[in-house]
Design goal:
Length: about 120
């Protein structure tokens, strides 16, 4: 088997994780929408406390900061793994994208706090 399969399988795994995350997030939003629709059809009211309890009213800045820190840590771990294994280029290839996306999320959080 060729050494080319290792990065290809790694990229496929990363893509599958992203696709699964997007799918499950969309499914969760659909279930929340269905729950709110049934609540309104039964004569209920939408109060901020109810939305907070259902998780519909989430602080976006806090979510962005968590995503940013997680992605930055993943990118740094890839760089460190490449450095420790003696193959820094492979670590850099896998680590550069999550590192910069994580830094962008952290930057978005800082910009939104200044507004």
């Amino acid at each position: 088997m060729s050494e080319l399969w290792i990065p290809v399988i790694g990229i496929i795994c990363i893509a599958l994780v992203i696709i699964a995350s997007l799918y499950l997030g969309a499914r969760e939003k659909q279930q929340l929408h269905t729950t709110l629709q049934q609540h309104l059809q039964n004569g209920g009211e939408l109060s901020p406390a109810l939305l907070q309890q259902l998780g519909a009213n989430v602080d976006q800045a806090k979510r962005d900061l968590r995503r940013g820190l997680l992605l930055t840590a993943i990118g740094a771990a890839c760089f460190a793994g490449g450095l420790v294994s003696g193959n820094f280029v492979v670590g850099a290839v896998f680590g550069v994208f999550p590192l910069f996306v994580g830094l962008a999320f952290c930057g978005i959080t800082l910009l939104s706090k200044n507004e």
